[in-house]
Every structure is written in C-alpha cells, then in structure tokens.
Specification:
heterodimer, A: alpha+beta, 2 domains, 5 helices, 4 strands, elongated, B: mainly alpha, 13 helices, 74% helix, globular
C-alpha cells in the first residue's frame, strides 16, 4: 500500500477547476517534484493535502488512514507535514523557542499551566540538537525576527521539525511515536537532498 | 514569551509592596476615601490582568470583558438575597457562571478574527447588559443595593474597608502570580505562538482554537472575581458594570500599561483610575484630557507606560 494515496481530488474556485480529478500515489522513500507554471494549482494542491484548504471531492489516505475532513493539525500529528514557500516563523520567539515549540507539539500535553516551559530540558535539548545540526546553534537565544537567517528560506527547515538523522528539507526525519514517516510536498526539492532515505 | 527578569520581579515587588502599605499611609493622613478608590483600583487591576492574558498574550481583543464584571457583581447580589453571603460561595458561583458564559460565547466568537471578534464579544456583553436591565427583580436599570457585603467564615469581616482592601490585594497578587505562571507554561507558549502565527502553529501540530478558548475561559473567570470585589466595594450592583463603556475602559487600561505585560495591566488600571479621579477634580470635561494623555502614551510608546521604563527593546 502506498504511503500517500490521493484519489479523485477536486477543488474549484467558482468555474475555475484548480484541482481536477487528481490521482496520485507515493510510496515510502519516494521523492517527487510537482512542476507547473504560475497559477497551475501547485500550492492549492499542497494546501489541500495538508488540510489548510478544503477539497470539493476526493480522498487523501495517508498511511492507510483517511485524512479528508481532518484539520491541518490532526494531519500533522498523523505524520503529514508541509513547509512554506514564504518563510513562516514565530517572529517574537527566540530561534530556540521556535524549534522547541515544534518538539512540544509531539511530546506530552500542552494543557500544562504551571511549570515554566523554558526550563524543560528535554524540549530544549532536542531543539538545540536540531539547531546544531543545521549550524545555527549560536543563534538559539536570538529572536527569530532579528535573526538574519529569518530572511532566507533555509531558516524554515530546522524549525519544521528537529531533524535527527539527516537534514532533509522537506520531511521530518524524526520518527513519530507510531513509527510513521512524515512526508511533505514542495514546489521543488534540491537535488542534494534527494539522497536522503527519509524524503 | 514572558521572561520574569529580575527587573520585572523587582517592579512587581515594589508595586505590590506600595499597595500593601497604602492603608497605613491613608490612616496616617486620616483620608478614608482613598482606600475606597484604592479598592476599586485593585478590582479593576484584576480585570485588566484578566483581559491582558487574552489580549496581550493570546491576541484576542475582547471588547466585552465587562460582561464578566457584571456576572461577578450579580453573583454577589443574587446569592446575597438568597441568603448565601459567604465570599467563597460568591466567588465560586461567579467563576462557574463566567466559565459557562465564556465557553459558549468564546466558542462562537473564536470562529471569527480581527474586527469581527471585537464586535461579537461586544455583542455578547451587550446581551448580558440588556438581560440584567430587564431583570426587574434586581432593580433593572437602576440596579440594587446590597444588604451587606460578603461574609468570611460567617463573619462580616469585609464591612471593614481595610479588610476588603487587603482581600482584594491578596486576590490580585494571587491572580497575578497565576497569570505569570500561565504565560510561562507550555500552555502559554502555545497561546503566544497562536498569536504570533496561527498557521505555523497548525503546521507543527497544534489546534490554536482549543488553547485560545481555554485562555478565554480562564480570563473570563478571573474577571468575574473582579466583579465580586467591585460589588462588595460599592455595596451596589447595576447593569452599568456590563456597559460597553466599561469594556472599553478595560482595554484602555491594558493599552495604558502596555499590551502583553501583566504588571503593566496592573499599573495601567492604577494610573487610568487615578488620572480619572484627578482630572475630574480639575474639570468637568476630564475625558478630553484623559483622551489626550492616552493618545500621547500610545504615540510615544507602543508598550504603554511600561515602555518608558524599558531600555532593552530590540
């Protein structure tokens, strides 16, 4: 069974059919690029797959589970993640907090009201490890908005998920509790990253 | 995210210590009116603190927080008439009703953003206002005078203005520490993150709605405690507590003190009410002067008054 299985996906804005009966299946370990001219509907497709945008019809199965109708955050927790074309960060947070927030999403409940989160070693250590891996550990305490790298698209990737085994840009290599793989899509993927086992 | 810097801890200590010794000063001066104003200030400081939690940290501009003042105040009036006079019972009832009201109205309001959120919270508060206006058993528009203040352990301790003042101060300090803890917790991080960039938070696996709604409920409950204190201070309850002017005043206090600065909210409430008292002595048209000062503060410091005491802005 494919890791990602898309059947009959549709979306129209009025009379304009942006996604017209799209079928797609992706096996584990595969890396794909979706290309097309401006307005072809690449971003819309990514938005539909990630749950950011609704779909008119079709099914999106990820790792055997139906994702259609699930909100974005639920799909993320199931293991589907996306990156953004335009850098998307939490500008008021420090670089470390940006990554630690992502670690926090995976570890334990966030309905904890009393213990200071800044003192959670487990979150910070994993986040620091991720920052060190991408070579920006020295910026950990800097506010993300002022970090010069915030201007570059590259900044995005450590904050997406703390990569553990490699630094593939578009997927999260962090093994999910259920042992699932994350897969994400992008308009492009650099050839240098194609070697990754986890993409 | 909030960092409890040594400076901020000191500022909090100094501010609360000043509140703590105030009754001794007023006693020395023989001015009994000042303690009444100060109690009102403390009650509004609680409400401003509650509002700042969602406005400053959650990015939710509620223009209907006076509703919770009204809920707290009417809890005292209604239970008091029913013969239940205990302060604890009044606060529990206020918190319970406020929680339900916040849960329902918040769940609806949070489906909107920006100006629509402001308008819908205002609309819900006005519904509460008109509900109590039409509640003729409790005086309708005119409100109702309390027979007595809340009791503690069956004793009418709060009839003493100083005792009421210290009760309000203890509640304010407790709620301030609670609010600080919340903003620094895991929950606070998600709440602040959802203000910074809700899409990003979803992309890393959080549903902002749940956290925002929880914060909204916590804030409503805190504000209802302020209502309990206000009713006791004035020994009088009327729908005017829920008036939209009042909601606006709370927003002004938060802006005054610096949005997203919990201690600033306390200071903002203090300064706004003191200014009101003082300017009213100068002229009948004091709101003009008050407005002018507010404009100047907002123009020259985006962080409100607390911004003037800060040099480390990046």
């Amino acid at each position: 069974m494919s890791l990602l299985d898309v059947r009959g996906l549709r979306k129209a804005y009025g009379a304009l059919k942006v996604t017209d009966d799209l079928n797609l299946s992706v096996e584990k370990g595969e890396l794909h690029a979706i290309i097309g001219p401006n307005g072809a509907g690449k971003s819309t497709l990514i938005a539909q797959l990630s749950g950011q945008a609704g779909s008119d019809a079709g099914s999106v199965r990820f790792d055997g589970a139906e994702m259609m109708g699930q909100p974005m955050h639920a799909r993320v927790r199931a293991g589907m993640s996306r990156s953004f074309q335009i850098t998307s960060i939490l500008p008021g947070f420090t670089v470390l907090e940006n990554v630690a927030a992502a670690v926090q999403a995976r570890r334990g409940s966030s309905f904890r009201f009393f213990a200071p989160v800044a003192g959670e070693r487990a979150l910070n250590d994993t986040a620091m490890e991720a920052l060190a891996r991408v070579g920006i550990a020295e910026r950990a305490a800097m506010r993300a908005a002022v970090s010069a790298m915030a201007k570059s698209g590259n900044w995005n990737w450590p904050s997406r998920w703390p990569p553990r085994r490699n630094s593939c840009s578009w997927t999260s290599p962090l093994p999910a509790p259920a042992g699932r793989r994350r897969i994400a899509w992008s308009r492009s993927c650099a050839a240098s990253r194609a070697r990754s086992r986890w993409c | 995210m909030t960092r409890l810097t040594p400076t901020r801890a000191w500022a909090a200590t100094i501010l609360f210590a000043a509140f703590a010794i105030l009754p001794m000063i007023t006693q020395a001066l023989g001015d009994s009116y000042l303690i009444v104003i100060a109690t009102r200030i403390l009650a509004y400081a609680i409400a401003a603190l509650a509002l700042d939690l969602i406005l400053g940290y959650g990015g939710m501009v509620s223009f209907g927080h006076a509703a919770y003042l009204g809920i707290g105040a009417y809890a005292v009036a209604i239970l008091g008439r029913a013969g239940i006079t205990d302060l604890g019972a009044h606060m529990l009832a206020a918190i319970a009703v406020a929680a339900v009201f916040a849960l329902i109205t918040g769940a609806i309001s949070l489906r909107t953003r920006g100006i629509y959120f402001i308008m819908i919270t205002l609309a819900f508060a006005q519904m509460g206002y008109f509900f109590f206006v039409s509640l003729s058993a409790y005086g309708g528009d005119d409100g109702v005078t309390l027979n007595a203040r809340s009791t503690v352990f069956g004793q009418p301790l709060l009839e003493n203005n100083t005792a009421l003042y210290y009760t309000a101060l203890a509640l304010l300090i407790g709620l301030y520490l609670l609010a600080v803890a919340i903003t620094r917790s895991r929950f606070g991080r998600v709440l602040t993150g959802a203000r910074e960039n809700p899409l990003r938070m979803q992309a890393i696996g959080f549903s902002p709605f749940r956290y925002q709604l929880t914060a909204y409920v916590i804030s409503g409950c805190m504000a209802s405690i302020a209502g309990v204190m206000l009713a006791n201070q004035a020994s009088y309850v009327s729908p005017s507590y829920m008036d939209w002017h009042r909601s606006g005043e709370l927003v002004v206090m938060v802006v005054f003190g610096g949005i997203g600065n919990l201690l600033g909210a306390v200071a903002g409430a203090t300064i706004a009410l003191l200014l009101e008292e003082w300017l009213a002595l100068l002229t009948r048209h004091w709101p003009i002067l008050f407005g002018l000062i507010l404009v100047l503060v907002v123009l020259y410091s985006r962080d409100g008054l607390s911004g003037f005491f800060r040099s480390d802005r990046s």
